[in-house]
Amino acid sequence: xxxxxxxxxxxxxxxxxxxxxxxxxxxxxxxxxxxxxxxxxxxxxxxxxxxxxxxxxxxxxxxxxxxxxxxxxxxxxxxxxxxxxxxxxxxxxxxxxxxxxxxxxxxxxxxxxxxxxxxxxxxxxxxxxxxxxxxxxxxxxxxxxxxxxxxxxxxxxxxxxxxxxxxxxxxxxxxxxxxxxxxxxxxxxxxxxxxxxxxxxxxxxxxxxxxxxxxxxxxxxxxxxxxxxxxxxxxxxxxxxxxxxxxxxxxxxxxxxxxxxxxxxxxxxxxxxxxxxxxxxxxxxxxxxxxxxxxxxxxxxxxxxxxxxxxxxxxxxxxxxxxxxxxxxxxxxxxxxxxxxxxxxxxxxxxxxxxxxxxxxxxxxxxxxxxxxxxxxxxxxxxxxxxxxxxxxxxxxxxxxxxxxxxxxxxxxxxxxxxxxxxxxxxxxxxxxxxxxxxxxxxxxxxxxxxxxxxxxxxxxxxxxxxxxxxxxxxxxxxxxxxxxxxxxxxxxxxxxxxxxxxxxxxxxxxxxxxxxxxxxxxxxxxxxxxxxxxxxxxxxxxxxxxxxxxxxxxxxx
Length: 558
Hints:
alpha/beta; Rossmann fold; GMP Synthetase, Chain A, domain 3; 8-stranded mixed sheet; 4-stranded parallel sheet; 24 strands; about 40% helix; globular
């Protein structure tokens, strides 16, 4: 059976909720047959628009049950789904639509539809979800499971546009073979995590489905005995997680860093014996990891594990078996923080071009700072320049309408990831940086910025982001973002200077940070300096703060 046939078969026999949204603190749910009814309704609409196998259809809107139904309907009809990020600006909508040339754009609401129309995109019809899902879906044969189209291995299923940290986004074509292979591997790893279960797993999702990793989690959840809860209000994610009580969910490092800071701030505000227990237990845990335990460490950890950590775990999610993290390397300190609380963090490494996954941590064998071994069935090696190369069924067939860039990315039958990394003797990978982010000083020294940025952020927990500069300059300089806009933050110039001095200690001269500028307020998706999944838009940051960066170098050289 194909992955889509497996999903349809599972939905047809599952009378319990399989998918639900959180609306005003309550669940809005659909059972498997009810979801198939929505899928059939969407397929009827698409067929009425004379959409056929191989045609593109764009899908724009926040995560919802109807979004999922449309996605399944497109795949079932052989239509190539092109998910758009609803948080994109109009110019980005126009660029993606012009590149993908969809026959139809399905929009969740009139405001998004207007934004798409006003982007300047011409040609495709825009249909609202309300028009697609009209009438009663639970009558007559609407619940009958019309079989989905049987995809061949190399049939294109979706085009996912990259987040575009620099340069314009590219359309990554993923085929049925890519998705079938990866779903098999994700199911295997989740079976290891959850063990034998009679009851459905509870899964939570807040990342938009326009990202490959979020889409893989969706399809994996629909193919196994689980109920997937969709966040509908990112400002209430913490409350929604507590309501959903998931066993696991997928995160980006930015979210886990925020949760960590919130917990630390809460402990500081409580002060007294609570802060004392937390601090002592944290120091004891650190020494335990380093095998340098002192007398009394076991007692402090025992007290924290009995009186403090259970309440913190419950505030995050009472049933959590693990937090899953991807999209960017997670700071080892943050991974250790959650491990100390008793919540494993399992890292996943991959690109959109690898159908979101290359490596996955094995439950109970996660090592902070590493992202797990390569998934079975693929090969990963390191080229002479330190770049990670990948080969296997998860690797995409190419970029949409970009043959030259496809040939470059797949040169020598290996995907050139652009990431730098290394594997230890047991095959556990560590990601060290991006080749294109490499800073080349005018002295000829090469510096990967990411490790230094993470180290400075560790010494300066009140910072939201750290970005290094210095390409073709004589030294490294840093932008440190996160000070409060009104100047009330405790991230003073002196605090940053002290942190920089701590990081510089013991480093060779060319890796030392010689100047810095404090940015009031964090980089964010809203101000255009982060991608939708929290990655730094380095080119945009450099352009926005070009004057401040230039002053750092002029001042130091004066």
